[in-house]
């Protein structure tokens, strides 16, 4: 993983603010530029998953923070693990949220790389692993499955490798290789429009890039 150093100045331990770009899907360089303008340093592990860009960075007081940037509207949240259960929801609030949603046998509630995760049993008796937003506790997705895509119908045919390659090329990716369907998700290595080598996870039915992770 390439470690990209950026500069932030962050007055508070956590922040939620709108970043200065129009509603669209953002690329890695735009996110890094916006984080730079917001004020943390030494950002690393930038990737896109569940509709958010995530990274780790250091605040001016030396503490580490998890950063989430909404890929739809550019809003940004930064939080520290020490704030969970105080400034931001903790494991007990996550459990209460899932219980209110009708899930049972909730266990292994843990904070991992900026998101809350939990293993639950649904009303149909099926065991599931869920991912929730760390602040709003919005249910985002189940790991290993595509994040919900607006307007995408259920049961659509899985796109072929040729179709995925064409869509990635149209989106500005080059040197696309190691393209394969793994556990129902297309994966590929490529160079993005900004010249960074990235690992990609692609929605199997729509071709939308679900995760773009900087690679060495």
UniProtKB/TrEMBL annotation:
<protein>
    <submittedName>
        <fullName>PepSY domain-containing protein</fullName>
    </submittedName>
</protein>
<feature type="domain" description="PepSY">
    <location>
        <begin position="92"/>
        <end position="141"/>
    </location>
</feature>
<dbReference type="Pfam" id="PF13670">
    <property type="entry name" value="PepSY_2"/>
</dbReference>
<keyword id="KW-0732">Signal</keyword>
<dbReference type="InterPro" id="IPR025711">
    <property type="entry name" value="PepSY"/>
</dbReference>
<feature type="signal peptide">
    <location>
        <begin position="1"/>
        <end position="25"/>
    </location>
</feature>
<feature type="domain" description="PepSY">
    <location>
        <begin position="159"/>
        <end position="213"/>
    </location>
</feature>
């Amino acid at each position: 993983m390439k470690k990209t150093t950026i500069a932030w100045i962050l007055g508070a331990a956590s922040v939620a603010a709108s970043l200065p770009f129009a509603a669209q899907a953002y690329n890695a360089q735009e996110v890094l530029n916006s984080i730079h303008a917001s004020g943390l340093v030494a950002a690393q592990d930038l990737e896109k998953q569940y509709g958010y860009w995530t990274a780790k960075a250091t605040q001016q007081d030396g503490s580490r923070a998890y950063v989430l940037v909404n890929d739809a509207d550019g809003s940004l949240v930064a939080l520290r693990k020490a704030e969970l259960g105080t400034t931001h929801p903790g494991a007990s609030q996550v459990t209460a949220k899932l219980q209110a949603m009708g899930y049972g046998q909730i266990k292994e509630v843990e904070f991992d790389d900026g998101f809350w995760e939990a293993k639950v049993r649904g009303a149909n008796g099926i065991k599931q692993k869920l991912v929730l937003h760390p602040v709003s506790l919005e249910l985002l997705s189940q790991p290993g499955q595509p994040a919900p895509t607006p307007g995408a119908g259920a049961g659509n045919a899985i796109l072929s490798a040729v179709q995925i390659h064409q869509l990635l090329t149209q989106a500005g990716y080059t040197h696309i290789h190691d393209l394969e369907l793994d556990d129902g998700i297309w994966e590929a290595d490529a160079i993005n429009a900004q010249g960074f080598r990235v690992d990609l996870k692609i929605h199997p039915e729509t071709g939308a890039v679900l995760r773009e992770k900087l690679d060495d």
